[in-house]
Amino acid sequence: MLKEVLLGVLTGAVALTIGILLGHFAIDKGSSVPDWVRDASRDVDESIIEKFLAELDTNQLRENLRELTKVPHMATTPGDEATVDFMLKRWQDPNTGLDSAWRENYKVYLSFPNKTSPNKVSVVDPANTVQFTAREREKVYKPDQEDPEVVQPYAAYSPAGNVKGKLVYANQGKMSDYELLNRTLDLTGTIAITRYGGEGRSKKAINAAKFGIVGVLVYTEPYDMNDGLVSESETYPHSWYLPPSGVERGSYNIDFGDLLTPYLAAKDDTYRIPKEDITGIPPIPAQPIGFEDAERLICELDGDDAPNEWQGSLNCTYKLGGPGFKSTSTFNNSNVHLDIYNTERLEYSANVMGIIRGSVEPDRYVIYGNHRDSWVHGAIDPSSGTAVMLEITRVLGKMVKEGKWRPRRSIIFGSWGAEEFGLIGSAEYTEEYFSKLSERTVAYINVDISVFANATLRASASPAAQSVIFTASKQVKAPGTTTTVYENWKQYSNRTSPNYGIIPNVGFLTGAGSDYAAFMHYLGITSMDISYFYDRSKTRARIYPAYHTAYDTFDYASTYIDPGFTSHQAVARTAGNVLVRLADSLLLPFNCSDYAESLDQYLGQAVTAFEEKLAAKGISMEPLKKAVQLFRDTAAKLDRLIRDSDLAKETPLKVRQMNDQLMLLDRAFLDPLAFPEQYGFRYEAVLLKHPATNDRSLMNLNRHPPNHSPFVHVMSHLFAITCNAVWHHTGM
Amino acid sequence: MLKEVLLGVLTGAVALTIGILLGHFAIDKGSSVPDWVRDASRDVDESIIEKFLAELDTNQLRENLRELTKVPHMATTPGDEATVDFMLKRWQDPNTGLDSAWRENYKVYLSFPNKTSPNKVSVVDPANTVQFTAREREKVYKPDQEDPEVVQPYAAYSPAGNVKGKLVYANQGKMSDYELLNRTLDLTGTIAITRYGGEGRSKKAINAAKFGIVGVLVYTEPYDMNDGLVSESETYPHSWYLPPSGVERGSYNIDFGDLLTPYLAAKDDTYRIPKEDITGIPPIPAQPIGFEDAERLICELDGDDAPNEWQGSLNCTYKLGGPGFKSTSTFNNSNVHLDIYNTERLEYSANVMGIIRGSVEPDRYVIYGNHRDSWVHGAIDPSSGTAVMLEITRVLGKMVKEGKWRPRRSIIFGSWGAEEFGLIGSAEYTEEYFSKLSERTVAYINVDISVFANATLRASASPAAQSVIFTASKQVKAPGTTTTVYENWKQYSNRTSPNYGIIPNVGFLTGAGSDYAAFMHYLGITSMDISYFYDRSKTRARIYPAYHTAYDTFDYASTYIDPGFTSHQAVARTAGNVLVRLADSLLLPFNCSDYAESLDQYLGQAVTAFEEKLAAKGISMEPLKKAVQLFRDTAAKLDRLIRDSDLAKETPLKVRQMNDQLMLLDRAFLDPLAFPEQYGFRYEAVLLKHPATNDRSLMNLNRHPPNHSPFVHVMSHLFAITCNAVWHHTGM
Predict the structure, then answer these.
(1) Predicted local confidence at residue B236, as pLDDT
(2) Is A419 among the catalytic positions?
(3) What confidence score (pLDDT) does residue A66 get?
(4) Which residues of A touch B16 (CB under 8 A)?
(5) pTM, full prediction
(6) Distance between CA B629 and CA B725 in Å, rounded?
(7) To the nearest whole percent, how much of chain B has pLDDT over 70?
(8) For residue B732, what are the CA distances in angstroms to A366, A409, A412?
(9) Which of A173-182, A544-553, A613-622 has the lowest mean pLDDT?
(10) Cα–Cα distance for residue pair B572/B312, rounded to 1 Å
(11) Three-class SS of residue A387?
(12) How far away is chain A from the Cα of B652, in angstroms, using its nearest Cα?
């Protein structure tokens, strides 16, 4: 009986155990954990990142670039339309495309030269006999330059006009340059020749007009661009340097976005301001020329020697002009004649948009963009960036189509139109969807020219994004080295951080050099701009020498800039890694204390530059210092709170609250009232950075009486906006 | 053996079953459902609402009002400080208080009469002998009027000054009124007497100055306020009507918020504009007087009979003035003399803030507020509203302290300071925390004067909030009736809705009459203003007759306005119900289609008023019509999506996405550029409503050339902003 009892008990015990196990593990509880509970707390999957990085392929990058640069694709031309179709085909590919892709048109105000009446620059004697004519097209070295769609070099938005006058040399066309000339010369009725750099394109002409100058030429100085080299045998196709006939095209305007519809999306029905009300474009004709032609003009000039800093690499001592040419010249007594036939037209320009829908937070967007339009073939600008974008979308699209991955947040890809004319496509996009974008966008990643050169990574960004760029760049091998992109970068450009010691230097997005401008300055979205860049110890080049010329071709890019496409790959891996981390991280990888460190740094510069002068006027910088201190303290608190939280166990709404605080931090620095007349630049963290760099800033201090000056207004706004931003670190 | 086997099997089976049951039900699965999953999907608990409504008590309301009105509590006076302490004591009460409560100070620019040199209004003959002096204080009927802290009637922000001149009667002080006088009279150097109503207080003086008038008197016309009654025996303390000596005080300014710190919070360190730069205040002295004194002046006037619409209930035919008095009057040849001693001071004004922290979405705020400051005892304005707020916080605070309830979202209570001087406390609050508030605030509920009279509910609100006000008002019994507040309201004020048929009429928050202004117009937060109101068929009174006088006392309120405090209770129940629903609803009870219906309605008015005139100038309203249509279609889609969702089973992030769309809908109508010079009024859904009511609007059309007019600018912004708002209905 004992045995039986034991057996029964044993049987019972075994059965009980089996039952418990079955009951616990095999039978679904009615109130079982919904799938989304696990999904909601999922973080970045490092194995996905590894796989993604491994699949980004140099051959694909090369073929993307080859396809994109087959023909010139200036905004709204047939070549541009072909790239629209190409992008759509790729993004709608059933195996490697995105969830969806479409085009969005804007009707925008563009400026073109006249195909049948090309712009002319000539030297004419008093009897109007032409003594010299500048080239109308760049010299042909390869079939690319022969394409009839290569647009004549011109200054977009320069007015049409027929002007002539004695020539003067005005260096970079800064106000100070004209003022110097004006001390000894009567500039009224003259034509000025200026070199690129040092001042915005349009400002060279706007400044000139203030002195009565009637026309402006702009050339590329070989000292600035070619490290002094000027001969055909030393320039492309024999090197990366600009050939003597190469001309930098460009948009001659100050404001970004469509010029007729400021702050409104340029749709069919949108009100357009009268053309006469456009500001920021040249009031007098302007035309760019190559240094071969510039040499003919500058080296014949009469007058005093130009100052040392005005001299360049052309084969003569640069003189200021008599005005006009020296008496020993065949051009003696001759005028320079500009005959400009630019016309403005409303054209439909397309953005191509593509999305991957987020699985957990579809209403949070990471936007990645680049412009699509070029001036000519645009191999480096912008197609090197577009090639990278297409390779990123191919790999991510494939993972999505195969069901292997879907980001936590939505990803929006933007192939912007008409950037070269003033960041138009991206600006119109932000104007059309401004509330939606500002409410939902986590970050904007801009990769325009992806490879300027192949020495090192370069990144400019909101301080909040520094840490994710560092994380990503530490996981990518630097081409041609045995080290990481991060370590390599640190060797080329670094700073000493109070928090971290020596780290790579992340630039600030102060300007409006590419499509990040509307996202950062207008919407206050955390933005970054990523590329591969020069070894600055090896070249003085202002930018890669074929910039905006007919030589920026696939041949140029694949021969001289990145033959193995390994720098393209390094940028794709770094920017792509940042993208996936921003899209997948449970907690957004933004760091408030890094932000505070940058504010501190800017404040330090402002204090050094201004505190003493201000104190003399009875204006104290203490409130501003207090505000920055408060920002730093609360940022540290939020960082601590984040560090002490076990986010995977928290409610998704708690994580969302922290993410919203992080996402909206840059937005808190928007202040439309600090400079109401420059509404597009509302992002005022940048104000603190401005003193040394920008005239919308503390620099204006001395122009105004104390206490009632715009300076005090600005400082008060800075104080308020910093306090406002502090609240972003406080919960509830 | 069989038996044993059977026994064993049976034992085993029983044990297995027990085991399965234990395993399934008794042992917590490692991955069991976290508590927050249930919390996150919890919706409004109707039993909590019932309990809350039942506890709102008329006796408590009465005692709140008694306490709040013991002494005059004009902003920043000792009486105001006493109410600060009282609010804090109540909100920090351990048994019925809030989670926390504190004061926030702003240093604001206020205007006061001089206690030692009271303002004087007199009639003086050519030899400067005083023939008549207006009262300096209102007549004492009850001890309240004897309090030395009763401020002399004055026009806040009227400049100090000593002016005299011949008197003219200028009706309501509108531009058209002065223009009419100006046709036959030389107004230079005259004093105008005007009546309240028809035009803003400050504008009466600003308009006057344009005609060379040197001083303005403002009186309360008994026709407008007392249904014509003028005798002491018919007015307070014998009825609710204004006694002959009663004077309406008021702030004579146009802009809301502290006048020296526009768009910046008035903290110690904030930059203050020079006083000379203040706009919107009287350029000439102004002073309010009672109708007893007005009668002495108006009934002695010479000149033509005033137009019929200018006549009132004083005992004479109103004449325009010679200028000056009639020859048969003892005042013949005499001037009216204004001797004003107002002074401006910077004073610390306090907001008292209190919060109940949300359990699930603490970073979503429902804000409920009222100002605390009065002109004198302020029983109706604002203490009737403060009494309601305190009763709501008592009942909610008790539920929280007892652990019986905690709202899903956070509730913020604001007791604003210095509203009477221009909505200052609430405006500074929105300026200080503007990003945080605009990102996180679900709605703002304003209950200022809670009971004007006890006939019916009155509500003005963003169209999105109509439905929740209806829901709440259907659950409250209307005092003195057998029906609900909703049904009673519908009888007094209704409209025919295309969607719902006959419904109560919810007004639009177009003006800046109370503290909702900064929330609605500056931040675009869905706002509402709730009170109990007149039977308009029974009285013409502009407002309750003791408004802003020394007769607005507890005695007045409890004798004539709401003796049983049942209307106070009805407002507390309705507004409190709205508050709890906004705080607790899983999905925010906002309706996009109601919004679309209102836009349609406004558009209809604009089309009727302008389409023909515009067409004649070649301007089409079609784009605007299309935009509104698009808004309506996408709103309907979102409503359908919401209806078809089983939200309780959705991830909290999906619900949050919909809630964010609903919360931010009103924000999408902000457009700082539509009227850059009136930045405080950025909320432009209101533009469509404006044509009939406001000069920042389409009304300006005829002042400008076609196609380039501000009208087209505005219409284009309206179009853009409507399109922008459409995206709020679209997911991802």
Answers:
(1) 98
(2) yes
(3) 98
(4) 15-16, 18-19, 22
(5) 0.92
(6) 12
(7) 88
(8) 12, 9, 10
(9) A613-622
(10) 37
(11) helix
(12) 7
